[in-house]
Design goal:
Layout (H helix, E strand, L loop, with lengths): L1 H11 L2 H14 L1
Length: 29
């Protein structure tokens, strides 16, 4: 799940998307 999202973000190269993902992963961890 995380790897797939990471790869998708990398492919898109969206900084905003990466930031959003980080925000979601932060509280989860």
């Amino acid at each position: 799940m995380y790897v797939g999202t990471l790869s998708f973000d990398l492919l898109l190269g969206d900084v905003h998307s990466l930031k959003g993902k980080r925000s979601v992963v932060r509280p989860l961890v």
